[in-house]
Write a structure and sequence with these properties.
Blueprint: H1 2-7, H2 13-38, E1 41-42, E2 45-46, H3 49-62, H4 64-67, H5 84-93, H6 115-128, H7 147-157, H8 159-162, E3 169-170, E4 176-177, H9 185-194, H10 209-224, H11 238-264
Antiparallel strand pairs: 1-2, 3-4
Helix pairs in contact: 3-6, 5-6, 5-9, 7-10, 9-10
Length: about 260
């Protein structure tokens, strides 16, 4: 009986253990929360708390009117919680946001913010919720890409809107797929990752990061291609080519007819 009494736990032992467990849990949660607020991981680059704070100021001054003071969206703009740093870098970096005026599609225009401010806005939005990060440099290096495979991926997923040559094309109700010529590697990757405007999202499950790099390599190869067969005519396909042939051919026929008539006279 004495041995059993010695092994019996103190009545407050369970309470002490519970208190210790609660303290440890709370401490770990505080550390995790502080780390999450201090850093917004975007393609290997960590944003500081100062970046997030400055980004919040920029957001409240320029974006809150449409997206709300808490970025949860309004009738004039969607929620930005969970869109990630990549979406901000693409939309703001290409000048599409802030929008100049409401319309069916945001237009490309000179950017309103410098590179540092764009990164600060991206840091703030990234801190609101997990989303696509700014791509790592290795996936933007076209020297490591496979243009042939990129062509296959592009033709299977993108050419129906952007044209096989990446020249862009018209969509319904005044919308359009923009040209991809002259677009930076980073913005092309971010567009695939975030699905801006009318574009679907091609996450890493649909198109892997390596395949995205191949697509970028293919597009950059098109940019450097010459037109050994003659005029490129915007690479818009048989419509522009047929119109050119019809117009020029008809002009030649009419000119030849006029010349023959003048000779006969």
């Amino acid at each position: 009986m004495k041995a059993l009494s010695q092994k019996r736990r103190h009545p407050f032992a369970a309470i002490v253990l519970l208190a210790i467990a609660l303290l440890l849990t709370g401490g770990l949660y505080a550390v995790a929360t502080a780390t999450n607020e201090a850093k917004a991981e975007t393609g290997g680059a960590a944003y500081s708390a100062d970046d997030i704070a400055e980004g919040e100021k920029l957001f409240n001054s320029n974006c809150a009117t449409c997206h709300g003071t808490t970025a949860e969206g309004t009738g004039a703009g969607p929620s930005l919680i969970g869109v990630g740093a990549a979406a901000v870098d693409f939309q703001v970096g290409t000048g599409r946001m802030p929008m100049q005026m409401q319309g069916v599609q945001a237009q490309i225009k000179p950017g309103q913010f410098n590179e540092e401010q764009v990164q600060q806005l991206a840091a703030y939005v990234a801190s609101l919720g997990a989303g696509p990060a700014i791509p790592e440099d290795e996936y933007l290096d076209v020297a490591q890409g496979d243009a042939a495979n990129g062509a296959k991926v592009f033709l299977a997923n993108c050419a129906m809107c952007h044209n096989a040559a990446g020249a862009g094309g018209a969509l319904t109700r005044g919308k359009f797929a923009p040209t991809l010529m002259g677009v930076s590697e980073q913005h092309i990757y971010e567009a695939m990752d975030t699905g801006p405007q009318n574009m679907p999202v091609f996450n890493d499950t649909n198109i892997t990061p390596e395949e995205k790099r191949d697509v970028i390599t293919y597009l950059k190869t098109l940019e450097s291609n010459t037109h050994p067969g003659g005029f490129g005519l915007g690479s818009l396909g048989p419509v522009s080519e047929g119109l050119f042939i019809w117009t020029v051919g008809l002009a030649i026929v009419l000119g030849f007819t006029v010349w023959l008539t003048s000779r006969s006279a």
